[in-house]
Amino acid sequence: MGRVVFTGVTKRFGDVTAVDDLDLEVLDEEFLVLLGPSGCGKSTALRMIAGLEDPTEGVITIGDRVVNDIEPRDRDIAMVFQSYALYPHMTVRKNIEFPLRTLDRAERATRVNDVANVLGLENLLDRKPAQLSGGQRQRVALARAIVRRPAAFLMDEPLSNLDAKLRVQTRAELVELQQRLLTTTVYVTHDQVEAMTMGHRIAILEAGVLQQVGPPQEVYDRPANLFVARFIGSPPMNTVRGEVARHDGALVVQLPGGPVEVPAPIAHALEQSGVTSVVIGVRSEHLSFGGAASIPATVTVVESLGHERHVICRLVDGQMVIVRVAAGEPVPSVGESVQLGSDAEHLHVFDAQSTARVEP
Ligand code: ATP
Predict the structure, then answer these.
(1) Distance 39 CA to ligand 1 centre (A)
(2) Which residue has a Cα nearest atom 5 of ligand 1?
(3) pLDDT for 46-66, tens place per residue?
(4) Which residue from 117, 243, 289, 360 puts its CA 20 to 30 A from 256's CA?
(5) Between the CA of residue 174 and those of 49, 178, 181, what are the distances in Å?
(6) C-alpha–C-alpha distance, residues 5 and 1, integer Å
């Protein structure tokens, strides 16, 4: 059982609260990504599972054991960092075998061969780390973690030293490996693309506080607050401040340039809650030129990315909004005046004050 649970876990370093009252359950066999910007506390959370930091408050369990007072080496976890820390004077075989010192020789050989097979390292076992590429070294570091067959893998930005192409490839290999081994994995990254593509679920942290936990698509489709809305997705979600108003008797949101209607259930929720200032969010793929509920803007830049184009527009008050257009679709020219529209169902509404999503 590789379930990992944080209950009311806080970690303070002097005046800094690195992790603030964290409640989080990582399910057995799950690949959970801890995501957030630099300094949000994700490494500290991971290091507390490993036993490299002690919680100031709260309880951490691995499997069914409370591990607060258990030594790192007795926690049955394996950690992979961005720096591979292989022993340079040892062969790949010896490096992988290193954690198995207590097992007999035959068992060691079987385990190393199994793991080498899984990671495609069979032909490299007699080489020294200096004779390997960065990607191969990272695979050896992974092999050394896997060979112990721990209850959980803890990974701290393990791909960040690889170049972009290798990172994409290794990302897929790691996912495949986890699917095969089904070892509970907690993976730390600041890269939302890694989080979206790798995690069964993503837990987003900001300033030590958990913002949302959920499957990637759910977090993308229904961000719990403005921070998550802006952190997940590239380009980031367009967000524009607006005021709740009445227009011909109906509740609308007044944006720079004109009013927009929000879906009836959200209008109802706004009315009930008495929220008057909101932020309207809309993803760039959900914006189009024209349509019924639309607001004026001017095209300032058109960026071509090959498979799509980003049309960057300014609203009447100067705020920037990005519209994503598939390659081959027509785009307006720079300097052109346009109307930006979106289906009401694709509008996200956030309370400007609390930043929380307004839900029906
Ligand atoms: P990064 O992606 O930059 O590694 P992170 O999200 O992993 O960031 P942490 O390393 O967990 O963030 O740090 C969280 C906060 O705790 C930061 O403000 C950091 O400066 C502080 N912190 C971390 N370790 C220590 C320490 N040993 N002593 C004092 N402060 C620390």
Answers:
(1) 5
(2) 39
(3) 999 999 999 999 999 999 899
(4) 360
(5) 20, 6, 10
(6) 12
Give the Cβ contact number of residue 229 at 10 Å: 26
**CA proximity to 283, closest of 235, 320, 245:** 235
Read off the pLDDT of each residue in 201-207 and give the average, rounded to a whole number.
Answer: 98
Q: What is the pLDDT of residue 283?
A: 96
Q: Which is the closest atom of ligand 1 to the Cα of 157?
A: 2
* CA-closest residue to ligand 1 atom 31: 13
Minimum mean pLDDT range among 54-63, 176-185, 300-309: 176-185
> Distance between CA 137 and CA 95 in Å, rounded?
10
- Number of CB atoms found within 10 A of residue 318's CB: 8
42 Cα to the center of ligand 1, angstroms? 8
Angle between helices 134-146 and 105-119 (to 10 degrees): 130
Angle at CA 125, nearest 5°, toward 120 and 131? 95
Q: Is the dihedral of CA 68, 70, 76, 79 positive or negative?
A: positive
What ranges in the chain are assigned the alpha helix state H? 42-50, 92-97, 105-119, 134-146, 164-181, 192-198, 216-221, 226-231, 264-273
* φ/ψ of residue 113, rounded to 5: -65, -40
Query: Which pair of structure tokens corresponds to residue 301?
Result: 């830049």
pLDDT of residue 291: 63
**What spacing in Å lies between the alpha carbon of 16 and ligand 1's midpoint?**
9
Most informative mutation of 13, 160, 192, 211 for ligand 1 (most atoms within 8 A of CB): 13
β-pair partners for 226: none
Structure tokens that stand for 212 in this block: 């949302």
Q: What is the pLDDT of residue 75?
A: 93
Q: How far is the CA of 320 from the centre of ligand 1 (A)?
A: 33
